[in-house]
Amino acid sequence: DVKIGLGSHTWGPGDSDTELDVTLSEDVVWDLDVQAGVTEYDIDLREMLLSTLVLDAGVSDGLVTLGASDAGDADEAIPVEIESGVSALRIRVPEGDSVRVTIQEGLAGVTMRGDWDRARDEGTTVYESDRFDDAGAFWDIEIQAGIGGITVEYY
Questions:
Q1: Per-residue pLDDT reduced to its tens digit, 111-132
Q2: Percent of the chain beyond pLDDT 70?
Q3: Cβ–Cβ under 8 Å, residues 106 and 146
Q4: CA-to-CA separations, 143 to 28, 32, 154, in angstroms, rounded
Q5: How far is Cα 92 from Cα 74, in angstroms, rounded to an integer?
Q6: What confidence score (pLDDT) does residue 117 get?
Q7: Which is it for strands 49-56 and 77-83: parallel, antiparallel or unpaired?
Q8: Closest by alpha carbon to 3, among 22, 19, 18?
Q9: What is the pLDDT of residues 21-35, one digit of tens each?
Q10: One-letter-per-residue 3-state SS of 59-97
Q11: Is 90 exceeded by the pLDDT of residue 43?
């Protein structure tokens, strides 16, 4: 396990310029667990190989950009688990990639940009990308939505 942070001190209004930039190797398959807390973030994973991504968005304003699900040796679902808390969250996925998004909606507004197939069942909504195929690698995104807004879009 590798833990990266800015320490355990209290931040105040004057600390708004505090920034943490992290660069990870593109040659390693990562199992990422991000605890965002009270923050603003831009997580660019376009060049990364992932086996899983867990994001606790906390109270935040964030952007997560995923790369191709079939990068590296991936040949099955790549789980992405997100708890959105009180957040504004934007998730970007590659156009043409196979993506399933399952959302447990709280009081969050959800916007899906682009063409998505939609199914709803008792508080859970499932979206699948155009021409979704679960026979190979695909992003399997599960979102526990709190309060705020969630946008999923293609790039």
A1: 999 999 999 988 899 999 998 9
A2: 88
A3: yes
A4: 25, 16, 17
A5: 19
A6: 97
A7: parallel
A8: 22
A9: 888 999 999 999 999
A10: EEEEEEEECCCCCCCCCCEEEEEEECCEEEEEEEECCCC
A11: yes
Tokens representing 101 are: 């998004």
User: What are residue 55's DSSP bridge partners?
Assistant: 34, 82
Closest of 111, 114, 104, 112 to residue 84, by C-alpha: 104
Residue 8 is encoded by which pair of tokens?
Answer: 């355990």
Inter-residue contact 59 to 38 (CB < 8 Å): yes
Do residues 62 and 43 lie in contact, with contact meaning Cβ atoms separated by under 8 Å?
Answer: yes
| Residue 41 identity (one-letter amino acid) | Y
Q: What is the distance between the alpha carbons of residues 108 and 147, in angstroms, rounded to a whole number?
A: 5
Q: Which two tokens stand for residue 44?
A: 């660019």
CB neighbour list of residue 149: distance below 8 Å, 6 or more residues apart: 87, 88, 89, 108, 109, 110, 111
Average pLDDT, the chain: 89
**Contact in structure between 110 and 48 (CB atoms under 8 Å):** no
